[in-house]
Amino acid sequence: TTKGCAYGFKLASLNQLMRSRTVDNSSTLMEYVYEFVSNNESYKQALNFTKDLQALDDAMTVDISVLRQNIAQIRMKLARIKK
Length: 83
Fold this sequence. Notes:
mainly alpha
């Protein structure tokens, strides 16, 4: 961003990496990026990003309505404590 200096990409752009192919149609841009990263020692650790995603499995099982109810209960308890 212009103010936060954050780096990254939108997840939706990953689809484009699979659709963009080489001139001879032998591989995709995603395959090229993988080959580049896996063959370059400076970037090889980036392939471990899937370990960071393991927490998402647990997050996907959370029921949002139950979570909102729990948050509301905590807010009420905090309001009582403040009084």
